[in-house]
Amino acid sequence: MDWVSWFDAPEYGFARQVLQRGVAALFFVAFLSSLNQFPALLGERGLLPVPDYLEGFSARRRPTLFRWRYSDRLLRSVCGTGLAISVLLVAGIPQLGPPWVPLIAFLALWLLYMSIVNVGQTFYGFGWEMLLLEAGFTVAFLGSDQTEPPRTILILLAWLVFRLEFGAGMIKIRGGREWRDLTALYFHHETQPMPGPLSRQAHLLPKPFHRLEVLGNHFAQLVVPFFLFAPQPVASTAAGIIIFTQLWLVASGNFAWLNWMAIVLAFAAVSDPVAHAMLPFLPLDGDPGGDVRGNPPYWLAITLVATFLLVALSYWPLRNLLSKGQLMNASFNRWQLVNTYGAFGTVTKHRVEIVVEGTLDEEPGDTAEWREYGFKGKPGDVRRLPRQWAPYHLRLDWLMWFLPLRTVHEEWFYAFLTKLLEADQRTLRLLRTDPFDGGPPRWVRASSYLYRFATRAEFQETGERWVRMPLYEAIPPRSLRGSRGRRR
User: Fold this and answer.
1) Sign of the torsion formed by the C-alpha atoms of 360, 362, 365 and 366
2) Predicted confidence band at 289 (pLDDT cuts at 50, 70, 90)?
3) 0.85 exceeded by the pTM?
4) Are the C-beta atoms of residues 340 and 321 closer than 8 Å to each other?
5) 131: which residues sit within 8 A by CB, 6+ positions away?
6) Closest to 262 in 3D by CA, of 365, 400, 166, 120
7) In whole angstroms, what is the distance from residue 181 CA to residue 177 CA?
8) pLDDT (tens digit, 9 = 90+) per residue, 36-68?
């Protein structure tokens, strides 16, 4: 029947390829990040051990495979399985079979990673975790090369991009004054959680350019998302603008897979003719499936059930978007589907960094030789060029950025200092440099410093990319024999 054929979107074959393989690739990064960092941060002997957390855990509120038992070996098995499935999906192997094969593969990724997130505590409290989960669940219903891309699922993916972009835009407009007076980018490149190799150059651009950046951001987030639902080629143009702005964010900072996910999801609005016009080497059908003749009735029924579910769950985030008390990065159901997103409602004006040091001296006085631990992503050595880490997620480095904004007296941070005193090898592998070459210091302390990017003249004179000034001792010297001094 003609009305049934509307649900098929054969002109979005290339979009499906990008969506399925791109989301699977980001799942691979997420599982790899967990495999490398989870045991040290949250494992059996981690900073916030999951077995302790599970003692007061509500499985009804947070579904996870670890509700019955956690072990580091089981965690590695979950990550290994997720990595294997992700590789298969990136290679397009499940997509060669019936549509229920990639469906099961993506739902497996969703359940496996949700199991990790739901016991990840503060180390997994980032908006891009739920974004990855929602994207994985929705992309699961895009079918395989034997079927046409379902139009309703593509629309729901465009709706996800809309919530991601428009939600972030509204958070900014309702947030700090700096977004309304166009001065936010005077500070953001310098004070963002994890600067990249080009962040200093971006910060040193003229202030009129920064004002144009903010105007462009408002246009891309508050106006452009509405055109994702327009006819072609307008929708593809809107997607192109979003992709371009997200690439600028990729170049100027490190936000794990947030920006890459936005780029991948934006392809839900890019049709094959537009993609072919931009990249002529792409086949017009965009899909290697060849002779596809519509979707079987059972698959149409499955996609419609998923559509009705996600539309029904959209009530709460839609209401949140229209609310003056808009929530940022919140989920309204235990399965973390159809969430609300947003970031940087206010911009930090000054960069304060917590520097961790240790000494081998018997007494941690003024004459002690203090050596600084180096982190992989956060500023430390003033001469070091910041590295590009995204889409990989350095969880410890990110949480270090929050300490001076909230409080240094976090349970996990005191556990981290204790692990340094014990020279715990798992913890030390999270760092870039260990000044004691694997040995334990006698004392450790945490000091706060004010950081700013060096001007071009300062860099030419000193070779230092950062200028830093000591502020105060955040945590006095501590040893395994007891701490010295009082908390401030």
Assistant:
1) negative
2) very low
3) yes
4) yes
5) 164, 258, 261, 339, 341
6) 166
7) 6
8) 999 999 999 999 999 999 988 765 578 999 998
